[in-house]
Amino acid sequence: MAHTADAGRGGNPAGRWFGDLPVAAKIFTAVGVVALAAVIAGVLAVTSLASVYRHGEAIERDNLRPALELSALRAQALTARIAIRDVALSTDKKAAQTKLAAADTAVTAAADTYRPHATDPATVEQFDQLWQQYVDVRDSQQLPEALTGDLKKFESVATSTANPIMAKVMAALDTAATAETTAATRTVADARDTYRSARNNLIILLSAGVLIGAALAVYTARRIVRPLREVGTVLTAMAGGDLTRTAPVSSRDEIGRMAAT
Predict the structure, then answer these.
(1) Which long-range contacts (CB under 8 A, 24 or more apart) does 81-87 make?
(2) For residues 163 and 226, which has the higher predicted lDDT (pLDDT)?
(3) What pLDDT, on the 0 to 100 scale, is given for residue 61?
(4) First CA to last CA across the chain, in angstroms?
(5) How confident is the model at residue 64 (pLDDT cuts 50, 70, 90)?
(6) For residue range 202-223, what is the model confidence (pLDDT) as tens digits?
(7) What is the pTM of this model?
(8) Contacts of 225 (CB under 8 A, 6+ apart)
(9) Could you give the percent of the chain with pLDDT greater than 90?
(10) I need a labelling partner for 165 at 20 to 30 A (CA). Which of 12, 56, 181, 218 fits?
């Protein structure tokens, strides 16, 4: 059974190269392309998960922790505000003063903890200045009246001076909270965008891998089945006594070599 000469080997070089591969190599090539697509998709998935994890860490580090520290600072400031009233109302002035001093220390500690993590450091500076103003007014004007038990003068100072300053202190903390919320929203949006981008890229890559694998599988099957059909047709003709038929198989794989004999 003769086959056509090399001059009749048309098609592109890549197609001829693939056609000349052994049948097993053709099959392994198709499987390898699908496996490669799966590996690339897996690597992309792991990389994307790492990116999402980093965003999660950023939310905890840059948003959740500062928000909790800011909340603790607000609570300590309110505790200190209540402590001065306890001095005015308590019969044990010394113990009440000790609690007031402890509350002031707690405010300072809370501010020092929050300061390095604050999204808007300027609001912390504003808080420090306003809080010091409040403490100065409280200790110089309210505390003496609280120690003497003059509640009328104590409330007068609170209404006219201390409370307005404390309102500004709380406003500064509100501004800081707004900055933290804005930053958290932005971080969550970035994490969502990263997830969506990773998901879309993964879907595209998997789809492309499946399509390429399917196309290569069909192409491989044709490169194997079509020559077999040609050889089968010739063998059928030969069995009927027609020895003039040839198989137009130009590949140099097992089927091509069989067609050439």
Answers:
(1) 81/166, 84/138, 84/142, 84/143, 84/146, 85/146, 87/143, 87/146, 87/147
(2) 163
(3) 60
(4) 5
(5) confident
(6) 788 778 877 887 787 777 777 7
(7) 0.63
(8) none
(9) 43
(10) 181
Burial of residue 253, with CB atoms counted within 10 A of its CB: 0-12 exposed, 13-18 middle, 19 or more buried: buried
Tokens of 164: 């307005």
Which H helix or E strand runs over 246?
none
Q: CA 60, 62, 67: angle at the middle one, nearest 5?
A: 80
Decide: 51 and 191 in contact? Cβ < 8 Å: no
Q: What are phi and psi of 244, to 5 degrees?
A: -95, -10
Place of tokens 């086959």: 3
Q: What's the per-residue H, E or C state across 211-244?
A: HHHHHHHHHHHHHHHHHHHHHHHHHHHHHCCCCC
Long-range contacts at 225-233 (CB < 8 A, ≥ 24 apart): 227/251, 227/255, 227/256, 227/259, 228/255, 230/259, 231/1, 231/255, 231/258, 231/259
Confidence at residue 77, expressed as pLDDT on a 0 to 100 scale: 97
**Helix (H, G, I), strand (E, B), or coil: what is residue 256?**
helix
What are the DSSP calls for 56-117, one per residue?
Answer: HHHIIIIIIHHHHHHHHHHHHHHHHHHHHHHHHH-S-HHHHHHHHHHHHHHHHHHHHHHGGG
CA distance 70 to 64: 10
- 109-123 pLDDT tens trace: 999 999 999 999 999
- d(C-alpha 211, C-alpha 207), whole Å: 6
The structure tokens listed for 212 are: 């390429």
Neighbours of 199 (CB within 10 A): 12
